Amino acid sequence: MGIGGVALAISPFLTWLKVFLLGNLDLFQLLQATGKPQFLAWGAVAAGGAAAWIAWDTRDPANPRDVGLGVGLGAGALALWALLSLAHDIREAQGLAEISYGPWVALLGCAALIVGGLMESRTKQPSA
Fold first, then answer.
1. Residue 21 reports pLDDT greater than 60
2. What sign has the CA pseudo-torsion 102, 77, 33, 99?
């Protein structure tokens, strides 16, 4: 699950779009070019980093499970929406742009968070 969090956290910095004659754009540059706010990109960095930290640092197995499922499902839905939106925009670019590996890394990271969250076993606290 920690690796999924790291993948999600670094995905906005990876190439999301290859544009003919312009070069590669990461998610921050893509959002800036389209005039959209960058809070979703920073949200992915923060959520992925927090999920990775919780997975590696916590002693309560319920925490990674809940965080992995929550972040994986929430960020996964946003990453899928971003990928579909980007694919729609690229169709209108008529071959001048193509999707790069950034969105796929984000989706794989979210999938790893979900799988890791499902695999975490909840242990019962000993009754006092």
1. yes
2. positive
